[in-house]
Amino acid sequence: MSTATLSAPVSGGLTGVVRSEIRKILTTRLWWIMGLSLMGYMAFMAAMMAFALTYEPAMTGMTEDVTAPQAREIATSIYTLAPAFGYVFPLIVGAISVTAEFRHQTITPTLLAEPRRSTVMGAKLISALPVGLVIGLLGSITCWAVGAGTIAIMGGETFAFTGETLRILVLSAVTLAIWTMVGVGFGAVVPNQIGSIIIVLAFTQFIEPIARMAISQVEKIAGAAKFLPGAAGEALAGGSFYGTIAPMGMLSWWQGGLVLVAYALVFSLIGLVTTFRKDVG
Question: pTM of the full predicted structure?
Answer without folding.
Answer: 0.90
